[in-house]
Amino acid sequence: MKRTTESKVQEHLVSVTTDSVQLQGNLALPVNAQAVVLFAHGSGSSRFSPRNRYVAGVLQQASLATLLIDLLTPEEEAVDIHTGHLRFDIGLLASRLVGATNWLMQNPATEHMKIGYFGASTGSAAALLAATERPNGVGAIVSRGGRPDLAGSALSRVQAPTLLIVGGHDFPVIEMNRNALAQLQTEKQLEIVPGATHLFEEPGALEAVARLASQWFGRYLMPTSTLSAH
Questions:
Q1: Is the pLDDT confidence value at 6 over 60?
Q2: Please, what is the Cα angle at 112 between 73 and 105, to 5 degrees?
Q3: Do 35 and 139 form a contact (C-beta atoms < 8 A)?
Q4: Contact (CB, 8 A) for 99 and 138
Q5: Quick one: 22 exposed, middle or buried, by C-beta within 10 A (0-12, 13-18, 19+)?
Q6: Can you tell me the distance from the alpha carbon of 73 to that of 80, in angstroms, rounded to the nearest whole number?
Q7: CA-to-CA distance for 148 and 189, rounded, in angstroms?
Q8: Per-domain residue ranges for the chain?
Q9: Interatomic CA distance for residues 195 and 205, integer angstroms
Q10: Could you give the dihedral angle defined by the CA atoms of residues 210, 65, 99 and 2, in that order, rounded to the nearest 10 degrees?
């Protein structure tokens, strides 16, 4: 199934097999895309998250392909609604992300593209951990309102340039991100969006997230005329 929008973005419903399960995703391909961003959504969310879909739309306008994927199967989601334990299983989520990364590296439409991760909430920790498993495959990471602290000792092994974005009123998470930033040994930056809370629901907050993410991915994933490809 594919959908073509007015902005010349082809969207495909895809199925990714990893860990002996099938994960459903939406792959959006702008006509001139040269890099792809894989979304790792947070606890209790899905690939239909309006916040992540908004950010994905902004990235697509910047010529970045996007893959929004459910890291849990529908059956696992049903269990997690009642127990809440799988959304904090960072190892499991990271393993699923690695599987989706492998799929992107083998898929004819994306195999030539650099890959970035956009993580939210617990998905940020999964993205950071997965990046240590594919250091040559992941070129940049952006975390929105994330829990990078849950990546633990993996933080010091992350090689991909990492941007942490936190709301200015998300006080406990600000401190968690500052501590995580100190452990990162790569190109790194912490951006605090003034007045924003955890879900960035305030006017202009999510737009700021999307702009910062687009700039970060553009800097580290997109080729420029002044740099030779390497």
A1: no
A2: 30
A3: yes
A4: no
A5: exposed
A6: 10
A7: 13
A8: 2-221
A9: 8
A10: 120
Contact 120, 142 (CB under 8 A): no
Average confidence score pLDDT of the chain: 90
Amino acid at position 181, single letter: L
CA nearest neighbour of 117 among 93, 138, 96: 138
Output the pLDDT for position 73: 85
- In angstroms, the CA 212 to CA 41 distance is 18
**Amino acid identity, residue 221?**
L
Q: Model-level pTM? A: 0.91
Instruction: Say if CB 38 and CB 100 are below 8 A apart.
Output: yes
Q: Which of 189, 103, 102 is nearest to 140 (CA)?
A: 189
Q: Give the Å distances, CA to CA, from 144 to 14, 29, 40, 103, 128.
A: 25, 23, 10, 24, 13
**CATH architecture, domain 2-221:** 3-Layer(aba) Sandwich (3.40)
C-beta pairs of 49-54 under 8 Å, 24+ apart in sequence: 49/120, 51/120, 51/144, 51/199, 51/200, 51/206, 52/118, 52/120, 54/206, 54/210
In this predicted structure, the answer to whether residue 226 has a pLDDT above a threshold of 80 is no
The length of the chain, given as a count of residues = 230
Amino acid 45: pLDDT: 64
Q: Could you give phi then psi for residue 144, rounded to 5 degrees?
A: -115, 115
Output the six-digit token pair for 56.
């994905």
- pLDDT, tens digit, for every residue of 116-149? 999 999 999 999 999 999 999 999 999 999 999 9
Lowest-confidence pick of 44-53, 67-76, 93-102: 44-53
